[in-house]
Structure prediction request, 210 residues.
Amino acid sequence: MASDAVHIFISPAYLRPRDLTWLLPLAGASGAAFATDTHTMRDVVSRNPGFNQTATNVSDGLLYTSIATPIGMYAWGRIKSDERSRETGILGSQALVEAYAVGELVKVATFRERPNVDNARGDFFSSTSKLDSSFVSGHSLIAWSSAAVIAGEYHNPWAQLGVYTAATGVSLTRVLGQQHFPSDVLIGSSVGWLIGHYVYRAHHHVPRTK
Prediction:
């Protein structure tokens, strides 16, 4: 796991020209998100406390599902001697831990205000955020890392639709709950997927199923 952490943090050094096919659109979308974050959270997303709390509860529930799924798959794999399910549980759990660690390090480094602070200005390096930094969305990081591993192991389109829909739901409801800016969840989701994809590619052994 320590070696994975090193590879994750130095991964930009391994970018190749072909990576621009996804990196440039991501950079453009991130720039647009940063430019419109304040407007979106002030004027587009509802500030109704009841609505925000419901969205937050949904995001928490979906996050717990993203965490519980690899654990449950590991247990099922052990009970049923299903090697793919067992491997999914191991790699999914590893991706969750690494995504959480990356998220916490980024939060400590950025100290971004949350949308419910200072009229959603979203300032970085703010002393008011303390250890409750908005950037990046830890929920999104974790959910997408789990989804990427499961989707890598199970190529069935319905399985992939299910895990990615749940991960998208986590990211969307973090914004609707006024917990994160769109840029927080966009970058958190992208980094989470990359972490899960890396863990799967680096460590899987069981042939992928359809």
